[in-house]
Amino acid sequence: MAEIDEDRADALFHALADRTRRDILRRVLAGEHSVSALAEKYDMSFAAVQKHVAVLEKAGLIVKRRDGRQQMASGDVEAVRSVSSMLDEIEQIWRGRIARIDDILAAEVTDNP
């Protein structure tokens, strides 16, 4: 994986490592929300919610746009798919290692019945 891909992976998984950010992402993937409306859903300050949204935006998981005085946030499905793709890649590496262990164990059983 290229360095830029590793940096992107770090940003994506950092953003998803927080419960509130995952919840915000779920909401904006279901539909566009104003950041003000999102802030009403959480027991934290508006500024704290803005910071969570900023982390998600920096990671590329959400997109913001202005609508008058409001900042509207929506989820980027392609970014979520890229996270899924990264996890699939890791899973394939793990499955390959398990398959090799299975082959070694099967060979040992055949050699030492």
Distance between the termini: 42 Å
Label the structural class. Answer: alpha+beta
Q: What top-tier CATH class fits best?
A: Mainly Alpha
Count of the domains = 1
Q: Any idea what the shape is?
A: elongated
Under the CATH scheme, the architecture is Orthogonal Bundle
Strand content: 5-15%
In the CATH scheme, what's the topology name? Arc Repressor Mutant, subunit A
**Considering DSSP H and I runs of 4 or more, what fraction of the residues is helical?**
over 70%
The number of helices is 5
User: How big is the Rg?
Assistant: 20 Å
| Full CATH superfamily name | Winged helix-like DNA-binding domain superfamily/Winged helix DNA-binding domain
Give start-end ranges of low-pLDDT stretches.
none
What summary fits the major beta sheet? 3 strands, antiparallel
Total beta strand runs: 3
User: What is the N-to-C order of secondary-structure elements (H for helix, E for strand)?
Assistant: HHEHHEEH
- Sheet with the most strands: spatial strand order: 1-3-2
Overall mean pLDDT score? 93
